[in-house]
Write a structure and sequence with these properties.
Largest sheet: none
Structural class: mainly alpha
Distance between the termini: 95 Å
Strand content: under 5%
Low-confidence stretches: none
Order of helices and strands: HHHHHHH
Number of helices: 7
Helix content: 40-55%
Number of domains: 2
Shape: elongated
Number of strands: 0
CATH class of the largest domain: Mainly Alpha
CATH architecture of the largest domain: Orthogonal Bundle
Mean pLDDT: 85
CATH topology of the largest domain: Cytochrome Bc1 Complex, Chain D, domain 2
Radius of gyration: 29 Å
Length: 172
């Protein structure tokens, strides 16, 4: 009987020590625990009220979507080397997986498409107006494999990519 009491006391001391250590750890931890995050307990704080005038009623993405591609004009000069360099970096971030590092449509992901992504140095692509390229990149190509990237790539970055693609010229 004496052994059982001693064992019970020992277990009680160990459990109390463990509880104390865990409580101290939780109290002094710099990051919150999962049950304390706002994602778990939504709407405990007041929702933010949007300031008047925040939502645009003209311009923006809707203006690009509703304008013919031939009528869209790039905000950048075609020969601006900084824009082209930035476009090259963006191309390799967003486009090279499908169009390939040689711009020929043989990217790692693009090889699984039918039809294959277009050769960006072909006469077909290089002869397109910049606005048409902008619309194809932004909203996809009907009956094609070009995904709509308007929600992925910012407006000015799409124009930079187009400047880079146009700077490639025709394949020799």
């Amino acid at each position: 009987m004496k052994r059982i009491v001693i064992l019970a006391l020992f277990v009680a001391v160990v459990l109390t020590a463990a509880y104390t250590v865990i409580t101290l750890y939780d109290t002094n931890l710099k990051v919150g625990r999962m049950w304390e995050t706002p994602a778990v307990r939504p709407h405990e704080q007041k929702l933010l009220i949007m300031e008047p005038g925040v939502i645009p009623f003209n311009g923006g993405e809707a203006a690009y979507r509703n304008t013919k591609g031939e009528d869209l004009i790039s905000p950048f000069k075609n020969d601006d080397s900084n824009v082209v360099a930035s476009g090259k970096s963006l191309y390799f971030t967003y486009c090279a997986q499908c169009h390939g590092k040689y711009h020929d449509g043989n990217g790692t992901v693009g090889q699984s498409f039918h039809p294959l992504p277009g050769d960006l140095q072909s006469d077909k692509v290089q002869s397109l107006p910049q606005g048409t390229l902008f619309k194809e990149i932004s909203y996809g190509v009907p009956n094609g494999r070009q995904p709509a990237l308007a929600t992925t790539i910012e407006v000015m970055d799409r124009w930079r990519i187009i400047a880079y693609v146009k700077s490639l010229g025709l394949r020799k």
